[in-house]
Amino acid sequence: MARFSSWVQERHFPSLHIPISIDRSFSVVPEGPIQARDGDTLYLSNLDDIIGARVFTPTIYFYIVGGNSIDDVVGTLRDALAKVLVPYYPFSGRLRETKNKKLEVFFGPNQGALMVQAHTELSLDHLGDLNVPNPAWSNLVYKFPNEGDYKVIDMPLLIAQVTRFSCGGFSLGLRICHCICDGLGAMQFLGAWASTARTGSLVVDPNPCWDREIFAPRDPPMVTYPHVEFMKIDDISNLTNSLWEVKPLQKCYWLSREFQAHLKSVARPMDSLGCTTFDAMAAHVWRSWVKALDVKPLDFGLRLTFPVNARPKLKNPPLKDGFYGNVVCIACATSTVSDLVNGSLQDVTRLVREARLGVSEEYLRSTIDHVAVDRPTKLEFGGKLTITQWTRFSMYETSDFGWGRAIYVGPLDLTPTPQVCVLLPEGVASSNGAMVVCICLPEAAAHRFKELLCLMDAS
User: Order of strands across the sheet with 21-28?
Assistant: First the structure.
């Protein structure tokens, strides 16, 4: 087991305060005519405006730059964004609620994206190693004063804060409304923005496609799956209380490619279907997390949920090239505490694999119809861990706006939703496939979780 000490390493981040001063803020509107006039609206599908998508996804980029003034940086980003907002004009609108609490995009005066320019007297060196998310970076991503949690109504749908550090480096803190795009759609948009900034002229490849009406509910709706992922469960266990009553710690663990390969080999179910690295990793993290938290009672029902990209499943009709809306389904694996912690890792991996493979075109259509019939109005956390995988996003490939690739791209703070785990790519240019697991744990459970993550129980 000694080899695992080099294959699995906890990555620490400093506790610090980053004082910033905001220099100016301004709207960025499309630089030319768009395919919408004041008073026009755009349809959002039930995948776009489902409760879990009614959030902003904060992401931070760090750059070490010499020779560029912050005004030049902001000007380049602003001018490129104004160009990109012509074909990606929905980002310049706002959300409002219609009948049955459904959302739509509407267009009116005084809209556009929001840009904020700020500075701090700290240098990037003060932030330590920029290789894992750090909640202390929160000041680098703009939030309105007294902004409510999960507020998306009548908000700019893209918010960008550029913060200059005393060393000449800077950060780009983004908040993108999840109702407008999923992760792959965001990569498409950000790739266009970055390419346009580098070249000085509009670059869109592929051309963006809205086309959300293809995900309208069936008439009449046909809910053909139970959709346990949305079900309200009375949490009689100690799971939720152990995470929400005390402030959990955000923990980050670097996992080498060798460890991932070893884990996949020991987690692989003994059948012909095999498993993916994600199947094995999700099963192992879920099981280790529940064991470390010592969840009781043993007969309590648990859920592991994770988003699955449904694009490859769609045949009738297939998605048009350039579609950037939400095309993710929430897969859900279930188990009692006893079966999870006392069963084999192979058994848990099989549960994850079955949930992943269960996402089909019909499952997606059933999800849309379920929301039409019984729209969830709040996030349900009972017995749940959600794992989201960022390792397949082209975050670093789309981060070059003209100053080279960012030295870090990713989230910053998981603690507001402590039942979420994020799998991130290692950011260094020389990475050979390592990943970073970010998860929230009470301090009392953190040491045990690391032991379990390192396969020290070997069961």
Answer: 21-28, 113-119, 158-164, 170-177, 56-63, 408-410
Q: Tell me which of 40, 211, 235, 400 is the catalytic residue.
A: 400
Residue-wise pLDDT for 315-337, tens only, equals 888 899 999 999 999 999 999 99
409-443 tens-digit pLDDT: 999 999 888 999 999 999 766 678 899 999 999 99
AA letter at 394:
S
- At 5 the pLDDT is 66
Give the whole-angstrom CA distance, residue 164 versus residue 73: 10
Token pair for 134? 């750090």
From residue 84, alpha-carbon distances to 37, 260, 406 in Å are 17, 39, 20
125 belongs to the catalytic site:
no
Exposure class string for 297-320: b at 16+ Cβ within 10 A, else e: eeebbbbbbbbbebeebbeeeebe
The verdict on whether 400 is a catalytic residue reads yes
8-10, strands of its sheet edge to edge = 8-10, 249-255, 435-441, 420-425, 384-389, 301-309, 328-336
Of 48, 178, 182, 227, the active-site residue reads 178
**How many CB atoms neighbour CB 265 within 10 A?**
10
What's the rounded Cα separation, in Å, for the pair 47 and 327? Answer: 7
Instruction: Give the up-direction half-sphere exposure of residue 444: CA atoms within 13 A in the CB hemisphere.
Output: 7
Q: Specify whether the CB–CB gap between 384 and 419 falls below 8 A.
A: yes
Tell whether the model's pLDDT for residue 82 goes beyond 90. yes
Q: Please give the angle made by the CA atoms of 369, 54 and 189, to the nearest 5 degrees.
A: 100
